[in-house]
């Protein structure tokens, strides 16, 4: 076989290897966002935060409106207008649930109807996000409720998202964000209960610390996992772990 015949094969194998290396790298670096993360992005895309405030915290004045402000997604005002998941969907699709269509509280700012612009997949993710932000996700396990309250009390949801179902951006981290507890990225980072306990108590998993590739990202990421060993008891850590396992077992 002459040189002219060899070169094409060398180039071919080089291209194949390069593509495979690139695919492996992308599989490691590309994030697999949870429904709550995607829902937040959809809310931003469709301008929901313009009126409801970021994460629906409210504050937008609405002249001539009975309640003074565009309702936030938390607290008593939200509960006045939201009965269940179907209500959320109808607010998004039609601008108002059908059961409230004859009621008018006034206000210059009106809820728009997204029926003709939002896709079914977007509606599903946005609904899950709103349920989480509104606190409408029911925890039907008493022990999981305890873990949820401990996590809430200690600020876990500020980084990992409401209910631990989303996460927030984290520049220079492996995937660019803090993973939600219910997503596939979390499962790739934490292999078992012992590692999860290690991460909560020490702020890092020893296995990742020994991995030069992982360690580089852990050290350079802007938001770092705090170590709760002097804050939480062993029992409280176990309660949080139980809640995370409960959460990962749910179908939203």
TrEMBL record:
InterPro entries: Cyt_c-like_dom, Cyt_c-like_dom_sf, Cytochrome_c550/c551-like. It holds the Pfam family Cytochrom_C. Residues 34-134, 142-248 form the Cytochrome c domain. Keywords: Electron transport, Heme, Iron, Membrane, Metal-binding, Transmembrane, Transmembrane helix, Transport. One of its GO terms (molecular function) is heme binding. The chain crosses the membrane at residues 6-28. This is Cytochrome C oxidase, cbb3-type, subunit III. It comes from Candidatus Thermokryptus mobilis.
